[in-house]
Write a structure and sequence with these properties.
Blueprint: H1 8-11, H2 15-36, H3 38-46, H4 68-77, E1 92-98, E2 106-111, H5 112-129, E3 136-139, H6 152-158, E4 161-164, H7 170-180, E5 184-187, H8 189-201, E6 214-217, H9 226-236, E7 239-246, E8 250-255, E9 263-265, E10 270-275, E11 289-295, E12 306-315, E13 327-333, E14 338-340, E15 343-345, H10 347-354, E16 360-371, E17 374-383, H11 392-407, E18 414-417, E19 432-434
Parallel strand pairs: 3-4, 3-5, 5-6, 6-7, 16-19, 17-18
Antiparallel strand pairs: 1-2, 7-8, 8-9, 9-13, 10-11, 11-12, 12-13, 14-15, 16-17
Length: 440
Amino acid sequence: MSKKYWNEKIETMPRAELEAYQLEALKEYLVFAYNNSPYYHKSFDEHGVSPDDLKELSDLQKFPFINKKIERDRQIAAPFLGDLACVPESDVVYISASSGSTGVPTISPFTLKDFDEWQDVEARLYWMVGMRPKDRYLHALNFTLFVGGPDVIGAQNLGALCIWAGTVPSEKLLFIMKEFQPTITWTTPSYAWHLGESAKTQGIDPAKDLSIRKIIVAGETGGSISATRKEIEKLWNAELFDFYGISDIYGACAGMCEYKDGLHLAEDHILVEVLNPNTLLPVKDGEQGEIVFTTLKKRARPMIRFRSGDIGFVNREKCKCGRTHTRIYITGRIDDMFIVSGVNVFPSDIEYVVRTIEELSGEYRIIIDEEEHLTKFDIEVEKEDNILLTQELALSDKLSKKIKERLGVKPRHIKILQKGDIPRATHKAKRIIDQRKKSE
């Protein structure tokens, strides 16, 4: 109960010793991937590299990248796990999944050892924000194939009393908070604000009438924006801590300590590079670039030089909390992804749905804005000429339902236009209109 670190030896390991640990792990890992993954074996050979070429950590730059497209393509080429995988399906005990632009959800497989090590990382992150066995923890993340769902097990392993709420309506979640008086919860920054404001409309003061004293957030950048964090903390009279996760690896692999200066990455499990998105060469610590991850232990499907698409920077100096693991700072996305209720929404996923409906022309626009501090989106589409006015409501409902089935969230409004109403472009179509207020 009184110890400061979940695993003091690992979390406070001197930098030189930590990098030596990473190097030995990476050497073994590259050999494992080369010998057991058909894709990595072929890819390394085609790029003229061998696991033996890794003599120091910087040699990782010699090895090829993978990205979301490769991940999807390899899964399609060798269903079910894809040929990035290094183990047979009989060794896999759990998968998470995310939607993809091809219509095939990308999965993230775990062996039993992978899963247990992942949840140990979660326990470490929970302990870092101050969770202890005496706490009651309300897990308000989606359990339906979402990689953040099982992270509640890390809290259980820590010894906290866990309430598996999932994504329930605000009224139900507030009822649970009143009835069971949890001390810690995890949601998205926008929903934490929305829930607090909703409580007030019901005559509940979240700062006085509820017992939440620590809020973990993830899925949006708001948790690392000081102005947003302070407003939520004031609303709830609670501390707010940001976590970072990536569906292709772990539910959460980095989190804030009490100093809230960046997110400590679990570097004994994951190696991080920051690269110039154009040259793909390393940038200096503190400079922004694309975040690239390499797993060091996950056996089911190694992710070697995975281009995350996230933009950010790192600080490898020892933190005031005593931890030595690199702190990451995520500042945005390379692509046009936006987040609704903690769900990553890609315009390509919406396009996929729109273009599967014969009654629509295939042209569309996405309008993004905010409503009561929550990100919302509307869609404009064109109907084919033979669609009558009386058929528009059914068509709108059909599109909304298909988008909800694919993404897990649905648009606030759908506007059906006449064919030709959406301006065409000779080069790049402007399909996204972002009307949200930009953070300072």
